[in-house]
UniProtKB/TrEMBL annotation:
The keyword Protein biosynthesis does not apply. Residues 30-56 are annotated as: Disordered. It comes from Brassica carinata. Residues 426-488 form the TRAM domain. The lineage of its organism: Eukaryota, Viridiplantae, Streptophyta, Embryophyta, Tracheophyta. Belongs to the methylthiotransferase family. CDKAL1 subfamily. GO terms for cellular component: endoplasmic reticulum. SMART domains: Elp3 (SM00729). Residues 40-50 have a biased composition (Basic and acidic residues). Residues 193-425 form the Radical SAM core domain. Catalyzes the methylthiolation of N6-threonylcarbamoyladenosine (t(6)A), leading to the formation of 2-methylthio-N6-threonylcarbamoyladenosine (ms(2)t(6)A) at position 37 in tRNAs that read codons beginning with adenine. Its EC number is 2.8.4.5. This is Threonylcarbamoyladenosine tRNA methylthiotransferase. It catalyses: N(6)-L-threonylcarbamoyladenosine(37) in tRNA + (sulfur carrier)-SH + AH2 + 2 S-adenosyl-L-methionine = 2-methylsulfanyl-N(6)-L-threonylcarbamoyladenosine(37) in tRNA + (sulfur carrier)-H + 5'-deoxyadenosine + L-methionine + A + S-adenosyl-L-homocysteine + 2 H(+). The chain crosses the membrane at residues 576-596.
Length: 598
């Protein structure tokens, strides 16, 4: 079936975000009974009378219950949350029990074969249960002629703001396809977060790369960035809603803004200015490929040093061999990846970097694989996502000569053993760390907190601690996470005190400026770098040394003190001033009258 797109007059336009179009503006394909057996007139059910035979709940739009299943990345999760928000805004219920749902909405991922196979299994299960199906995400967008998508409704990645229309028509028995690309979905659509304390914020869609193995580019397309102003406004909104972690998400965070004349450091500097000074809301920068951050490493390092930003970055390398990287068309060398890692770990205290490896890419030799193992051993990353090569239909790599399956599996096992032998958290046992608690662990017993380096810490405590920050003592260390005990829950009062101490910059090489640092003047001198000073100012200028005199610091201190006065404080001062002035006027008036009588 050809794609059926918007049928609005003039062929353009659409509904405002969050509003439904008239039903006749949605392209639909009414399902027909194609059976060759003869049907009597009494048995025939047409589209018009099929609705009259449906249960009452199926006839009233918005009265049904929807099951949403999401595969893939955080960007997909954000899309699902937006679709859930729109559906609930129009009265639909949500359930996590598939059997209780009137319709299944499956948001798909096309990165690896296993996730697409899981999608196919779920579609088959839904069909056998006679559940109306809507398939969203990267699979229908990138593989619209897939056999599994026959007879079901599909919605593309840039049409999620029309999910309500698609669900309504599908519940009526129609097949709907909306796959044309259009403007980016609005960021202020209704949203139901899977975790109330975590906002997944897409900053752009698509990418500028052309990796030979990647199917996602077929689905998400070329780079399309949201404006800085729209993203900053979204950050303000979610902070006011009580969000405690903001995850910047995209197919390549580092490429942000290159299509609209800005770049990632500009966006990051604008966002961190909106984050609360008490560090109650933290920012996590999303996955970025090496090519587009190489030229901004110092600026990004300055952002990562900010008290409200996790010192964590996901930078996929995929292979330690330049020959394999060239075959992948990754547009960087293993040496350039090393530059990224070395620079960030040097400039950012406690920096944590995660990476990805693909084992068995077509043409990978034993020497190529040995270089990859050597790279991982050199850095002993705490997180490495290891996967075997899966040929994706329609990609150049799918036509390349494959490495034998048994060799691919052997290499994957070998690299996994190397990685699992690392002990990345040794040495932090007994230390006290500030953590931000946002989740319940999968064991249902512990709460999950993260350090500033985004190290996962499991602690015991009531669910009321979710969304709070605390000081935890690390009690034991495991391979994948650490365990701790909460020794202090941070309130807004003691957080402000701690923040003032924590945000003092490290020592500068100039002893005259040392009174602003976390050190004494005696400790300043040779070997101490001033690159991290002036943290409290514009972080894009953190590498400049402070040269203002003491008088300016005193004045700034007074302004800071005044800025902490609340409304009641100011009202009391004004009241005292007005009262004093009134008494003075009355005394002058009385004195003048006495003198006149004499």
């Amino acid at each position: 079936m050809e794609d059926i797109e918007d049928l609005l007059a003039g062929g353009a336009g659409g509904a405002l975000p969050g509003f439904r179009l008239p039903l006749n503006s949605v392209g639909v394909n009414p399902k027909r009974n194609t059976s060759k057996r003869s049907i009597s007139k009494q048995d025939e059910v047409t589209d018009s009378n099929r609705d009259s035979l449906a249960p009452p709940s199926m006839k009233i739009p918005g009265a049904q219950t929807i099951y949403i299943k999401t595969f893939g990345c955080s960007h997909n999760q954000s899309d699902s949350e937006y679709m859930a928000g729109q559906l609930t805004a129009f009265g639909y219920g949500l359930t996590e029990v598939p059997e209780d749902a009137d319709l299944w909405l499956i948001n798909t991922c096309t990165v690896k074969s296993p996730s697409q196979s899981a999608m196919s299994t779920l579609i088959t299960r839904g069909r056998s249960g006679k559940k109306p199906l809507v398939i969203a995400g990267c699979v229908p967008q990138g593989s619209r002629d897939l056999k599994e998508l026959e007879g079901v409704s599909v919605v593309g990645v840039q049409q999620i703001d029309r999910v309500v229309e698609i669900v309504e028509e599908t519940l009526k028995g129609h097949e709907v396809r909306l796959l044309n690309r259009k403007t980016l979905p609005a960021l202020d659509l209704p949203k139901v977060r899977r975790n109330n304390f975590i906002e997944i914020l897409p900053i752009n869609v698509g990418c500028l790369g052309a990796c030979t193995y990647c199917k996602t580019k077929h689905a998400r397309g070329h780079l399309g960035s949201y404006t800085v102003d729209s993203l900053v406004e979204r950050v303000r909104t979610v902070i006011s809603e009580g969000v405690k972690e903001i995850w910047l998400s995209s197919e390549d965070t580092g490429a942000y803004g290159r299509d609209i004349g800005v770049n990632l450091p500009i966006l990051l500097n604008a966002i961190v200015k909106e984050l609360p000074s008490d560090q109650s809301t933290m920012l996590r920068i999303g996955m970025t490929n090496p090519p587009f951050i190489l030229e901004h490493l110092k600026e990004i390092a300055a952002v990562l040093r900010h008290p409200c930003v996790y010192t964590f970055l996901h930078v996929p390398v995929q292979s330690g061999s330049d020959a394999v990287l060239t075959a992948m068309n990754r547009e960087y060398t293993s040496g350039e990846f090393r530059t990224v890692v070395d620079t960030l770990t040097e400039l950012v205290p406690g920096m944590q970097i995660a990476t990805d490896i693909i084992c068995g890419f077509p043409g990978e030799t034993d020497e190529d694989f040995s270089q990859t193992v050597g790279l991982i051993k050199d850095y002993k990353f705490a997180q490495v996502h290891i996967s075997q090569f899966y040929p994706r239909p329609g990609t150049p790599a799918a036509k390349m000569k494959k490495v034998q399956s048994k060799i691919v599996k052997q290499r994957s096992r070998e690299l996994t053993c190397v990685f699992e032998a690392f002990a990345p958290y040794t040495g932090i046992e007994g230390k006290e760390e500030r953590i931000w608690i946002t989740e319940i662990a999968t064991d249902g017993v512990h709460l999950v907190g993260h350090t500033k380096g985004y190290i996962q810490v499991l602690v015991s405590g009531p669910e009321s601690m979710l969304g709070t920050s605390a000081i935890a003592r690390i009690t034991s260390v495991g391979r994948w996470s650490v365990f701790g005990e909460v020794i202090e829950t941070l309130s807004s009062t003691n957080v402000v005190t701690r923040v003032r101490e924590e945000t003092k910059p490290p020592c500068t090489s100039d002893a005259s400026t040392c009174e602003t640092c976390n050190c004494s003047a005696e400790s300043c001198g040779e070997g101490n770098s001033g690159d991290a000073c002036n943290v409290s100012g514009d972080i894009s200028k953190q590498d400049h040394k402070t040269t203002e005199g003491k008088s300016k610091k005193v004045e700034e201190g007074k302004q800071e003190l005044a800025s902490h006065w609340g409304f009641v404080d100011k009202a009391l001062v004004c009241g005292v001033f007005v009262s004093s002035l009134t008494i003075l006027v009355l005394m002058i008036s009385i004195a003048s009258r006495v003198l006149m009588r004499q």
